[in-house]
Amino acid sequence: MLRALARALRLARPRGPLPARRCASAAAARDPEIQVRALEGPDTGITEILMNRPQARNALGYVFVSELREALARLREDRQVRVLLFRSAVGGVFCAGADLKEREQMSEAEVGVFVQRLRGLMNEIAAFPAPTIAAMDGYALGGGLELALACDLRVAASSAVMGLIETTRGLLPGAGGTQRLPRCLGVALAKELIFTGRRLSGTQAQALGLVNHAVAQNEEGNAAYHRARELAREILPQAPIAVRLGKVAIDRGTEVDIASGMAIEGMCYAQNIPTRDRREGMAAFREKRPPRFVGE
């Protein structure tokens, strides 16, 4: 636990920028299935991960997972990333879950290895040092919902459809859903949704607390994305190190008893005391002006 916390605290402090802001593709002849875009102007600090596998409705195939893990590894060290937003470049779908056609071609041993890769991917999303937001403008089923559950915040169109439907395919959630859904909804409700494979609308999901916000879909089919971007803009002005350390304190603290959680909070607070941003926040309060945080 202490080693994991120490690693998380190191990740909470942003580092130097990347030399490039593009996700490399395994095959130069085709479009990447994962595309990275850094926003500019008033949205500088928001980076988007666009899932772009239209022929398979963004299903979690081998190339898709590999490219997403590569993108996360690059962005993790980029101090310019203050909020990471996951969205789909495919209309009507966020992520349709596992690529069952691809999985049918795997041996049982290969399936086990690939599910471990999926679980690792979801853990990497959950452990990303900056806040993460999933914008669900369409279907988020099975592993697609597990991907959204790995994010810190979730925004859905009211017409979006989501659910851990694995039991309807003879499977069970294998990428963290059995652990993250109970933490989000409570054990009994999580069991009900997993046992039944029930699908929820965005409106129903918000009523249960599964998503932070549900918004009416627009003609362009990207209402959740616009609301998620507004939410990201609310995070941007805040002190980046304090936000990242707050994420560590919450994530690590909820895994342990309250006394241990308080100790973790204290360690995070101590990490923030010597930062330039903390001093700037105090000075801005004293001088009655907006703070100018730089992430140091």
TrEMBL record:
<dbReference type="InterPro" id="IPR001753">
    <property type="entry name" value="Enoyl-CoA_hydra/iso"/>
</dbReference>
<dbReference type="InterPro" id="IPR014748">
    <property type="entry name" value="Enoyl-CoA_hydra_C"/>
</dbReference>
<comment type="similarity">
    <text>Belongs to the enoyl-CoA hydratase/isomerase family.</text>
</comment>
<dbReference type="InterPro" id="IPR018376">
    <property type="entry name" value="Enoyl-CoA_hyd/isom_CS"/>
</dbReference>
<dbReference type="InterPro" id="IPR029045">
    <property type="entry name" value="ClpP/crotonase-like_dom_sf"/>
</dbReference>
<keyword id="KW-0456">Lyase</keyword>
<protein>
    <recommendedName>
        <fullName>Enoyl-CoA hydratase domain-containing protein 2, mitochondrial</fullName>
    </recommendedName>
</protein>
<dbReference type="Pfam" id="PF00378">
    <property type="entry name" value="ECH_1"/>
</dbReference>
